[in-house]
Structure prediction request, 694 residues.
Amino acid sequence: AYERRFPTCPLIPMFVASDTVNEYKSEDEAIHVIERRCKLDIDAPRLLKKIAGVDYVYFVQKNSLNRRERTLHIEAYNETFSNRVIINEHCSYTVHPDNEDWTCFEQSASLDIKSFFGFESTVEKIAMKQYTSNIKKGKEIIEYYLKQLEEEGITFVPRWTPPVACKSESSTSHPRRPVSPAINIPESATKEGLSSKEILNTSSSPSEPTAGTPDDKLDADYIKRYLGDLTPMQESCLIRLRQWLQETHKGKIPKDEHILRFLRARDFNIDKAREILCQSLTWRKQHQVDYILDTWNPPQVLQDYYAGGWHHHDKDGRPLYVLRLGQMDTKGLVRALGEEALLRYVLSINEEGLRRCEENTKVFGRPISSWTCLVDLEGLNMRHLWRPGVKALLRIIEVVEANYPETLGRLLILRAPRVFPVLWTLVSPFIDDNTRKKFLIYAGNDYQGPGGLLDYIDKEIIPDFLGGECMCEVPEGGLVPKSLYRTAEELENEDIKLWTETIYQSASVFKGAPHEVLIQIVDASSVITWDFDVCKGDIVFNIFHSKRAPQPPKKDSLGAHSITSPGGNNVQLIDKVWQLGRDYSMVESPLICKEGESVQGSHVTRWPGFYILQWKFHSMPACATTNLPRVDDVLASLQVSSHKCKVMYYTEVIGSEDFRGSMTSLESSHSGFSQLSAATTSSSQSHSSSMISR
Prediction:
């Protein structure tokens, strides 16, 4: 299928032609190396082509197929302007070591623009544009040729076997693996790459389940019972992400269903799914979300006036949540409770939804990973568009979207009034595209007709207020008495109380503005312990000692409160005039911590005085022109603020006689995720080593 791209490919308009310049085949036909000169029509401004004096650019591509090892290696470099621009690319297709029916695809490349007539920036943008376009088409192209092969009746290619004369020698030097039922046909590799990596399955026919450990391949019955239909590629992504968690995460490992939700939310892009899952687990740890159903009781105001509740299930077995938004006094609830209490209540609803999904999976004997929400807008009016109420709603949507992806199976919006388009205009930009596709909106009594409520909910459980016969125990809502309203000061204090029930504090770290914490030590040989999560960006962790106290902390003007925690701050203690080695000293070597890592450690103090824990912005070192950073790293850095980091931390000082962990100085244990368990500060979990464990 890959070879059919040559000498030209109609699906790649810029690929004009190619000529074979060298070709080699081994006697046993195991090795086939072919080198081509490819002619490309780059999509560049005509003026730039005229200045450069060329209409086409030429690349040399060398493909090395090893049928014995079942690998295909592709190397490409530019021939045109090679003295000004250097592009090197390498792609490889290999057989997955744990499942022979999967093909692994890796691609890496570098772009080095030395000079280009003063248009260096333009050339870089053109290269990125072309590369992105080709990456998106890669899978489409290989599937096109696979389908072409199938139409010609070619659905199976026999595995290569050595000639009889060579069989004895080959069997000793290259032990063969068990023969798989079909050969893997590699996917397309693009020509102007910078960097990309993914694993694809290109098996031409379904294979029977093979024996293996649960870590290598998921059991087919388990997938059908708890996870639903997964392609081999999706199954591979789940296994790899779960394995990464097991290797790097010291706390509670999320269930496969939970991991799968984040993968689906990012179309099974492992890097993107891992990023949002990491942020979500850190968020859950900070706000103790895992224990919200057991430890938090909603205020009586919510129980009386929040017009929502669980009500049986829909025809697909999904838990059904009914919300009578039109009957709810959102302004009164916000005035009486504040944003944070409302948000916490919605989180408890989502946690209950996850629990009900697990129960329904057991009851119905099939995977149920989402719920259906029925929203009745009867009574919705301009009062619901009160600005603080809309602000609270947007905040809730933002948090739920980030931490409960792919949990909403369907949203039925009934009796939408004329004011609804106004609310929808305000809210819809904050809702993910995939989520919006699950919305069904009915005006007036349209829900009673064809394609209405009866298509999704059994007649027996349609609520009475919608014309059904089932009594619904959802509170009717109504106006919240003004006597229950709270002042702004009371609400602010209550908000802080709600979100600081965790022992952790949040801090923002900026370029040139580290966050510092002061710890005064009276008795030598005390032990300073810490536990922190790097929520965003990369930081450098330092510990300093000073005999004299620094000036009172001053709030940095840059330190903005974070969205998820009003406690995010930035405090600097070390005076600008202080000199390292004279006014204060570094007691440990700096520790570089990457985004998403959780770090626990301890330091045994040698002297009394003042110790300063510092989290500092970590700047990437400048790269030489011959050692450019990978483009996926560059792109990732563009997605976040380039000069801001976020840290969530906890510190404690204990006497050496009470310290049960290792007495090794600056002993830190790294994890790719923060722990979900409450006992994150237990020093007994530290590794007994002075080396940094990652």
Summary: The longest helix spans residues 120-151. The chain has four domains: 2-152, 220-287, 290-483, 504-550+570-620+642-660. The chain has a mean pLDDT of 76.
